[in-house]
Amino acid sequence: MFVNLGWQGMGQGWTQGSQLKGARGQHMQDRECKTGGFVLEVTQLPLAEALKVEGEADPQRTAECELEGVGLAHVSVLFQIRGSRARALPDRALVNCQYSSATFSTGERKRRRHGDRKSCEMGLQLRQTFEAAILTQLHPRSQIDIYVQVLQADGGTYAACVNAATLAVLDAGIPMRDFVCACSAGFVDGTALADLSHVEEAAGGPQLALALLPASGQIALLEMDARLHEDHLERVLEAAAQAARDVHTLLDRVVRQHVRE
Amino acid sequence: SCRTVEPLEYYRRFLKENCRPDGRELGEFRTTTVNVGSISTADGSALVKLGNTTVICGVKAEFAAPPTDAPDTGYVVPNVDLPPLCSSRFRSGPPGEEAQVASQFIADVIENSQIIQKEDLCISPGKLVWVLYCDLICLDYDGNILDACTFALLAALKNVQLPEVTINEETALAEVNLKKKSYLNVRTHPVATSFAVFDDTLLIVDPTGEEEHLATGTLTIVMDEEGKLCCLHKPGGSGLTGAKLQDCMSRAVTRHKEVKKLMDEVINSMKPK
């Protein structure tokens, strides 16, 4: 796996990478992972709308995560009080996730209106995933906005979104229980496949999306489509979990490198 | 005076010394980087970074019926999206004022500069033409969005490859040959240069988000290679003398040369080795 950190890497293109072969012919697609921005110091939020932390001009952190062959998702995390004060929870932070897909991200140009079903569903899934991972008790009466923008979709968009959002939240300095690593998996011809591409997803077999907190092995989110015999479930789950753990190794390395710089 | 308490005073102190807080001179642009062809699902794509401001442009080509009053012309449809992802000033929902103004600006640039001859997009007069949907998404907003969008559009259009299409005489259906692709004929290279006006007198080039916020007016000049003016956008704000305008035009000419050099490097890197 090849990791390219920092915005300077952008000019060199995003196609570098090497193939990682999993056990029993489960190939994972090329991965490349970048983070950008700087760490935001977490402070108690003032009532004023604009959050200006000492020395920082913009309380916004972005992270970009590309799982090549899977899709490019750009995520930004905002941390401030905004909107109706009535929605603020007295004991914990509100997590708000919004998913958006670029019109040129799929093979066919699809102009999706804001707030359509797919975006809402994705947003909800992301919110549920991150509510499980973020330590919301530490920031009462505030809102954490996670915006995800998919630039290129080639299968496994949920996984790419979750991985990118994890990096963005970490970059913003928001405390989390653990990394959230996700991967998709499917079952074709008796073999469990990890990290499905668009072509593999379109083939119509059962698909599983798994979001994992790797240290404890706890599953944050598990969604499955189509019919799968329960005998096979364990194998497919294991394939997805192994892939997620591999993603965790990569993300961990990237974050440590970034912090060291 | 502190930067957060009295930003204008803070800026004035720098401007007196003819420089800016980030170390740039008044006529200096931020580091510009461009990356083309990274989105494989799009027919042409480009990512442009002007300092922190990041804009990605994706071009998708589709078939359409030509307009009845011009049966041998295609369409180029731009759209600029400023999502809440790029800055806290934008809310989610329908496009806000700034996004709509930017979209209209790009549409004007395309129309005025004749960047693509619409007749080049014709496949079969009166029956089938290409429509190029150019979607620009801002990924990080730090001022000077118009320059970044114009550059991203230009780079993406230069990256677009259209397959050869023939109309079958017997079935009257279009046959697309994906193996034979050719680049678009980009006729002109419009380059935008934006300025911010401070205290009604001082002009600075390539304003950052903070500078735009403190400015009393803005000006954008779009120039093409023959020194022809494609577009001049000055939405109200403080007045400018003719002489100042001429200074801006000469800076725009220099910027065009800088951008052209970068574009040529990018084009050369695109060519198959």
TrEMBL record, chain A:
Species assigned in the record? Pongo abelii
Per the record, its GO cellular-component terms are:
cytoplasmic exosome (RNase complex); nuclear exosome (RNase complex); nucleolus; nucleoplasm
Pfam families (alphabetical): RNase_PH (PF01138), RNase_PH_C (PF03725)
Q: Which family does it belong to?
A: Belongs to the RNase PH family.
An example of a GO molecular function for this protein is: RNA binding
**Keywords linked to the UniProt accession:** Acetylation, Cytoplasm, Exosome, Nucleus, RNA-binding, rRNA processing
Q: What is its main location?
A: cytoplasm
Q: Where in the cell is it found?
A: Cytoplasm; Nucleus, Nucleolus; Nucleus, Nucleoplasm
Coiled-coil stretches, from where to where? none
Q: Which GO terms describe its biological process?
A: nuclear mRNA surveillance; poly(A)-dependent snoRNA 3'-end processing; rRNA catabolic process; rRNA processing; U4 snRNA 3'-end processing
**Subunit structure of this entry?**
Component of the RNA exosome core complex (Exo-9), composed of EXOSC1, EXOSC2, EXOSC3, EXOSC4, EXOSC5, EXOSC6, EXOSC7, EXOSC8 and EXOSC9; within the complex interacts with EXOSC2, EXOSC7 and EXOSC9. The catalytically inactive RNA exosome core complex (Exo-9) associates with the catalytic subunit EXOSC10/RRP6. Exo-9 may associate with DIS3 to form the nucleolar exosome complex, or DIS3L to form the cytoplasmic exosome complex.
**Is Protease found in the keyword set?**
no
| Protein name, as recorded | Exosome complex component RRP41
The cross-references to InterPro entries, in alphabetical order and at most eight, read:
ExoRNase_PH_dom1, ExoRNase_PH_dom2, ExoRNase_PH_dom2_sf, PNPase/RNase_PH_dom_sf, Ribosomal_Su5_D2-typ_SF, RNase_PH
- Metal-binding recorded as keyword: no
Cross-referenced CDD domains, in alphabetical order?
A: RNase_PH_RRP41 (cd11370)
Q: Per its UniProt entry, which superkingdom is the organism in?
A: Eukaryota
Encoding gene (name): EXOSC4
TrEMBL record, chain B:
Task: List residues traversing the bilayer.
Answer: none
Q: Which UniProt keywords apply?
A: Acetylation, Cytoplasm, Exosome, Nucleus, RNA-binding, rRNA processing
- Main localization of the protein described in the UniProt heading: cytoplasm
What subcellular locations does the record give? Cytoplasm; Nucleus, Nucleolus
* GO molecular-function term, one example from the UniProt record: mRNA 3'-UTR AU-rich region binding
**Gene3D superfamilies in the cross-refs:** GHMP Kinase, N-terminal domain (3.30.230.70)
Any one GO BP annotation for this protein: U1 snRNA 3'-end processing
- GO CC, one annotated term: nucleolus
Superkingdom of the source? Answer: Eukaryota
Ribosomal protein found in the keyword field: no
Q: Entry's Pfam families?
A: RNase_PH, RNase_PH_C
**InterPro entries linked:** ExoRNase_PH_dom1, ExoRNase_PH_dom2, ExoRNase_PH_dom2_sf, Exosome_comp_Rrp42_subfam, PNPase/RNase_PH_dom_sf, Ribosomal_Su5_D2-typ_SF, Rrp43
Domain Exoribonuclease phosphorolytic residue range list: 28-163, 190-253
Q: Which family does it belong to?
A: Belongs to the RNase PH family.
Listed name of the protein:
Exosome complex component RRP43
Name the gene that codes for it.
EXOSC8
